[in-house]
Description:
- The chain is 40% helix and 15% strand.
- The protein is of the alpha/beta class.
- It has one domain: Undecaprenyl pyrophosphate synthetase (3-Layer(aba) Sandwich), CATH 3.40.1180.10.
- Strands 3-4-2-1-5-6 form a 6-stranded parallel β-sheet, with helices on both faces.
- Helix 2 runs parallel beside helix 3 (77-100) and helix 3 runs parallel beside helix 4 (116-129).
- The chain starts with 17 loop residues before the first strand and ends in a 13-residue tail after the last helix.
- The protein binds farnesyl diphosphate (FPP).
- Farnesyl diphosphate is lined by residues 23-28, 41, 44-45, 48, 65, 67, 72, 83, 86-87, 90, 139, 194, 219.
Amino acid sequence: xxxxxxxxxxxxxxxxxxxxxxxDGNGRWATRRMLPRTAGHMRGVQSVxxxxxxxxxxxxxxxxxxxxxxxxxxxxxxxVSLLMRLFVQALEKEVHKLEKQGVRxxxxxxxxxxxxxxxxxxxxxxxxxxxxDSLHLTIAANYGGRxxxxxxxxxxxxxKPELIQTPELINEETFSEYLSMAFAxxxxxxIRTGGEQRISNFLIWQLAYTELYFTDVYWPDFGAKQLDxxxxxxxxxxxxxxxxxxxx
Length: 248
Ligand code: FPP
């Protein structure tokens, strides 16, 4: 079982063990070039490839990418369809390569709203890469942090209905086991590209003590150089987890 940062001060090193990214700015990248927004998403997939590779080389162990939020269904239907097609294509084309690279792929979120074909591809991709351990790549799709917390609460009570009589027995440890990232340590570093400075309902439970890095660079322009800059910034942070500087 993984203890959370509020229970035990985690060990940390120069390269984040877990990196979580909100890949923002695809639409604006395209609009600036008088291209349809969907062109930005297609370029965004290339950045995903680059970052997976760079993270693998740098020694990041867990990489979690926010690909589609619970709120993204509010977008125009042709953009939502394109994003779904990109997921399908990426799963069909890339899984073999990911498997060879030692990447274990997981998809988190409420997948029940996706087309059954996409759900099946996700299951197959997860099974095919389940033996890998060099980089744990997690794609958050139809994911929302509040959904995650509510879902965990529902699953916990379904599993252990007796806790309704003794709610004081519910603690961080027992609860977080039901969250969708229960297999990973909490993110050390969070990156959001595209200039906005918010969490947008991403891993709201898990980001409690994460270092937050915001850059104006649009996601399609984010590559190895920009990742290095984020790591350099991270190395300059003093991670106190509630302690004073003098105690470090
Ligand atoms: C945010 O840019 C990006 C998204 C909502 C989708 C991210 C998807 C990809 C990078 C491609 C598919 C990914 C995988 C893993 C196959 P935005 O559209 O909100 O940009 P904007 O803020 O400039 O409008």
